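User: Hi! I have a protein structure encoded as tokens and I'd like to know what sequence might fold into it. I'm fairly new to this, so please keep things simple.
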């Protein structure tokens, strides 16, 4: 994955040489940088713990899933929707803590149920089409990161170049899930990926 990153940024620099008008500074992750300035601890927890758990629960659970992982996916989607109803000014740790606690309660309820026939068929379909799910979720994982840069929905070449490393990451997070069959591995890989970025940001954070 890291090797693919280096190749991508090498090609990006090559492209920028021939297209100097390509303004890669056009979009900034303003909200994340504001969080980093206002609450470094919240930023670190969000990047290294909360985001890997929540995002992998949404994007990697349906790749060759167990019933438990399907329940985790449902809870993660509900948690993501729930975040939209919490005021922006709410404290980040309180906001995510409340959402995660609610998701855990829903998960425990779903876990107590016997899987329905529909759920069994759905799981078989996901298993048979795991390669398509793997690639599709990698692309979606990249696309949702557009909201790190802009509000609402817009898309152009610069945004595509900014999110493409996330698509690369999504591919490899899916690969490690396929090869190991356990959600803990993409979560750990995602946390390591974000942790490396946080490590290089530490001088600015501190």
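Assistant: Happy to help. Inverse folding works backwards from shape to sequence: for each of the 206 positions I chose a residue that suits the local structure. Here it is:
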């Amino acid at each position: 994955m890291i090797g693919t990153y280096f190749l991508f940024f090498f090609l990006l620099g090559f492209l920028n040489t021939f297209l100097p008008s390509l303004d890669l500074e056009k979009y900034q992750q303003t909200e994340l940088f504001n969080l980093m300035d206002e609450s470094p601890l919240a930023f670190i927890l969000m990047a290294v713990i909360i985001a890997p758990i929540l995002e992998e629960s949404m994007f990697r659970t349906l790749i060759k899933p167990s019933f438990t992982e399907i329940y985790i996916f449902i809870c993660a989607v509900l948690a993501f929707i729930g975040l939209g109803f919490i005021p922006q000014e709410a404290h980040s740790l309180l906001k995510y803590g409340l959402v995660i606690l609610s998701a855990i309660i829903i998960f425990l309820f779903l876990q107590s149920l016997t899987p329905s026939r529909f759920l069994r068929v759905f799981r078989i379909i996901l298993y048979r089409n795991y390669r398509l799910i793997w690639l599709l979720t990698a692309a979606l994982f990249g696309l949702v990161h557009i909201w790190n840069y802009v509000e609402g929905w817009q898309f152009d070449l610069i945004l595509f170049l900014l999110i493409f490393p996330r698509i690369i990451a999504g591919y490899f997070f899916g690969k490690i899930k396929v090869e190991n069959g356990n959600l803990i591995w993409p979560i750990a890989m995602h946390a390591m990926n974000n942790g490396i970025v946080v490590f290089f940001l530490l001088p600015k954070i501190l």
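A useful reference point when you look it over: Residues 27-204 form one domain. Feel free to ask if any position seems puzzling.
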